[in-house]
Amino acid sequence: MSVATQGNGLYALLKTEEDPDGTVTETFSSSEGVASAWGPMQHGGPVSGILTRAMERCSPRPGTRLSRITIEILGAVPIDEIRVRATVVRPGRRIELIHAVLEARDAAGEWRAAATGAAWRLATQDTTDV
Fold first, then answer.
1. How far apart are CA 17 and CA 40, in angstroms?
2. CA distance 49 to 9
3. Dihedral, CA atoms, 42, 44, 45, 47, nearest 10 degrees?
4. Which one, of 39, 99, 31, lies nearest residue 71 by Cα?
5. Segments in 9-129 forming alpha helices (H)
6. Which pLDDT band, with edges at 50, 70 and 90, does 127 fall under?
7. For a Cys staple, 114 with which of 26, 33, 104, 118, CB 3.0–4.6 Å?
């Protein structure tokens, strides 16, 4: 198992799947390090980090960077197995919009959206002359 968040032990990558359209879905196990102080659920920081990671890795292009990242937490994210996927919803040469979804299992064991993220990816350029 590889650790998804650069060695801090918050999530361990369990499985990676790619759909025919190129969408990559990654499934992770969550460690106790993601726990919130407000109950048996994940804190918003690790949730934001794993969604941002998915958006950064979604169809990466050299000479671009993410900007204006927004995260919406839709409900409690359990300290359990989660899955994350990101897609480019507005492609473009200089700017594109990426959307990510973090899913967790509900009480019946069905996957449900627990958090979403959106980010604009912008082409970078040399600003030395400015």
1. 28
2. 13
3. 70
4. 99
5. 44-57
6. confident
7. 104
In the prediction, which pLDDT does 52 show?
96
Q: How far, in Å, CA of 23 to CA of 63, rounded?
A: 21
CA separation for the pair 97, 100 (Å, rounded): 10
Give per-residue pLDDT as tens, 108-119.
999 999 999 999
Output the average pLDDT for the chain.
Answer: 89
Rounded Cα–Cα distance for residues 28 and 16 (Å): 9
pLDDT at 4: 54
Where is 70: in which H helix or E strand? strand 64-73
* pLDDT, average across residues 60-66: 93
Return the SS3 of 50.
helix
**Which residues on neighbouring strands pair with residue 96, listed in sequence order?**
121
C-beta separation of 51 from 72 below 8 A: no
